[in-house]
Amino acid sequence: MAETKVICFANNKGGSGKSTTCSNVGAALALAGYRVLMVDGDMQLNLSLSFLPEEQVLELARSEKNLYHAIREQKDLKDYIVETGLAGLSLIPSSTLMSGIEYELFTKWQREFILKKCLKTVRESGEYDFILMDAPPTLGGWVMNLLCASDHLVIPVEASPWGLFGLANMLEFVNTVQEMAPQLSLLGLVLTKVDERKNYFKQTREYLQEMEDIRVFDSYIRVDSAIEWAQDNSQPVVTYRKSSRSAKEYTALAQEVAEYAGR
């Protein structure tokens, strides 16, 4: 039985397309026949809203069937999984209460590894090929938890003048986490919100490609209104409009992610 791969999508800069990339890569992997579990680690609920109607997401956020309560009580995550409308793809939803998770973790023993412990049974069950986790746009104890529980990290980078802002801090943070979690590897950087008509895209890509020992995915995601329409309908674009340019780009990215993650 192949080992379950845990991949975190993170960037400390907001607006990088992190949740959108995580949701669409997960959906594309499910469409390709992989069994995928999505974990929404962000209080903004965007990953949950990518698969479930807003009313259901808010109901789950108000209930005790969400990631916040699991982490707070240090419970096995298998009891917090909900099914989405997409075959082969399940979800552990988030809660707006995740805004207080740093406080909840502060006094806990080995607080950096609480998520890893809660995820242990699910991961070792072999039920999923991939577990994809969406991190909030911060650098702190909770993001450290997410990274310590992961095998790989994908960093979406917005192809804009401010897209690189904070990337050095993010990479430095990853290096710190790797001292505690040496299994964590940076799978790669993926450019998002690309407008090929603008010179800054080329400059940003060349800058990233010149970074030593850091992969830049061949696939990149261009600006596409179909993504917003998909979000408005609580779907990833790879299921909402399969023929769209962005759906094809996310599908290609998912193939790269699976290959580099050893699946």
Summarize this structure briefly.
By secondary structure, this protein is α/β, with parallel strands linked by helices. It is built from 12 helices and 7 strands. It has a 7-stranded mixed sheet, with helices on both faces.
Furnish the topology, listing elements before pairings.
Layout: E1 5-9, H1 18-31, E2 36-40, H2 46-49, H3 54-62, H4 67-73, E3 82-83, E4 89-92, H5 101-106, H6 114-124, E5 130-134, H7 141-148, E6 152-158, H8 167-180, E7 185-192, H9 199-209, H10 225-232, H11 237-240, H12 245-260
Parallel strand pairs: 1-5, 1-6, 2-4, 2-5, 6-7
Antiparallel strand pairs: 3-4
Helix pairs in contact: 1-12
Description:
The chain is an alpha/beta fold. It has a single domain, classed as Rossmann fold, CATH 3.40.50.300. It is 43% helix and 14% strand. The chain has twelve helices and seven strands. The protein has a seven-stranded mixed β-sheet, with helices on both faces. Helix 1 crosses helix 12. The longest helix has 16 residues. The protein is globular. The model has no long low-confidence stretch (mean pLDDT 94).
CATH architecture: 3-Layer(aba) Sandwich
- Which residues sit in consecutive blocks of at least 5 with pLDDT less than 50? none
Estimate what percentage of residues fall within beta strands: 5-15%
Structural class computed from helices and strand pairing: alpha/beta
Overall geometry? globular
Which sheet architecture does the biggest sheet show? 7 strands, mixed
Gyration radius, in Å: 17 Å
Measured between the Cα atoms of the first and last residue, the distance is 12 Å
Question: What proportion of the residues is helical, as a percent range?
Answer: 40-55%
**Quick one: CATH superfamily?**
P-loop containing nucleotide triphosphate hydrolases
Number of E strands: 7
